[in-house]
Every structure is written in structure tokens, then in C-alpha cells.
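#lab-general

N.A. 3:47 PM
ok so I finally got the sequence cleaned up, no stray characters, all 277 residues accounted for. can someone with queue access submit it? mine expired

B.Y. 3:52 PM
send it over

N.A. 3:53 PM
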Amino acid sequence: GTFSCGFYEIYDGAFTFSIWYTNSADDKATTVWSANRGSPVHSWGAAVTLRKDGSMALTDYDGTVVWQTQGRFPDAQYAQLLDTGNLVLKNSSGDIVWQSFDSPTDTFLPTQRIAETSKLVSTTQLQVPGHYTFRFSDQSMLSLIYDDYDDTNITSVYWPDPDFQYYENSRNLYNSTRRASLGDSGEIFSSDLANSHVLAASDRGTGIQRRLKLDHDGNLRLYSLNSSDRTWSVSWIAESQPCKIHGFCGPYGICHYSPSPVCSCPPGYQMKNPGNW
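B.Y. 4:20 PM
back already:
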């Protein structure tokens, strides 16, 4: 009963096919995977179907295919939501032929492998994919990257700190492997972390529900669930100084502390879109 899977309302009459934590005080914050983020379906007539060719498809009210699993699996017999939060297709032998863990959106869960091609993409407050990604860089380092290639052709790493050498960030450079994971004890393991170093939650230990999320502001946070009041708290954060996050104040915006982060325009300029940096 830890996770639920189904149609999830993101705003009036618009739904995603998603997985979320079931018993959280704030359901809106705990969606951990979505099939059709940025392309919601209508409240009436949308359906998820496990087809005869073994693919699973999400269709809108008019039959338009909004999302489907990559590849066909003729021997797929059923879909199942596992206790880990992983939605899987299994064959008659019980073997997994497709899993949502292989195509994350903005959240990693404990036991989920972060592979060479895995990446998280932030979700904006408008519920569409954003400009921030969490993945292995070309130097095989697990990184936070600002990617505004569509508008400005800018792609830049802002964590680990680009002002430091890789060894100052406790990283190995150019590893032959790219593997990472979030452990049950709240530890983030990665093949590029030097000297068996791990990134650990402040409440390190087993028996706590957690999620590692790339938030809309570009910061990567590890959240832990309080079992008594069912609220989430931050137990680890990648960047403690938000002004170091590229694009935090939008293109050309200036970020400064007073004492919390505040955005402003350069002298003689004004916001292009008031209220949205």
C-alpha cells in the first residue's frame, strides 16, 4: 500500500498516468513517475490498455495514443505495481520485460538503479519538463546540468561545483563505469565518488520512506517521510547555495542573498514576464 498507480489530476479535467506515494499529507508533492508529463489527457474517455502485442498504451478520449511503452513484448502477460514503486510488465514466467524504473521522470526511488543513460528532468510549476537534468556528464561524473539548448544553446554543469577540480569535489574523472543508486539507508552511491565516499541523508538508517527528486528550482533533494504526521522533510540537498544554480533567476537575472535568495534585473532592465523569473 505504499504506492498507488493510475490517473492523477494535475489540474481541473487534466490527468497524467502516474505513480505516487499513497498516504502522504501532500499528494501533489509525491508523484514519483508520470508516463505523459507535459501531455495530460482528458478526464473522460482516457484509458490505459495492455495490448495483445505486449505493449502498454495510454490513449486520450478520441483514441489518440499519448504514450506507450518502447518496444513490443509478445510474451507480456500482465502489468504489476511493485512495493518499490516500480511499474512492470511481466511474462508468463514472471520475468520483467519492461519497467518504469528504466524511464524515470524527476524522481529516483530506493533500489532504483541510475544507469549510464538514466536521467531526471525537472518538472516546472506548469507541470511540463523543465531545463534541469540530473545525469552522468561526458566526464562520467554524476552531475546537475542546466540545459536550455532549445532557446540559447547553453548547456552547463553547476553541481558538483565547476569552480573546483574534480578531486576537490571528491570525484573520480573518466570512470569506465557509470552506475549509481539510492540505498534503503538513505545513502547515494555513485561510481564516480572517490575513496568510497557516499552522499548520505541526515537521518541515515533503514525503515524510512525516501525519494530523491530534482525539483523545479534545479536543486536535487532527498526527502524523508515522517511516519507519524506523514509529512516530508529534506534530509540531504545537493546545492546549499541556490544562487549557484544556473538559471535560478532566469536569463540575465541576478541572484543575491538578503539573507534568502532574491532575484533582480541588471540596472536599466525589467522582467520579461512579471512574477516568473
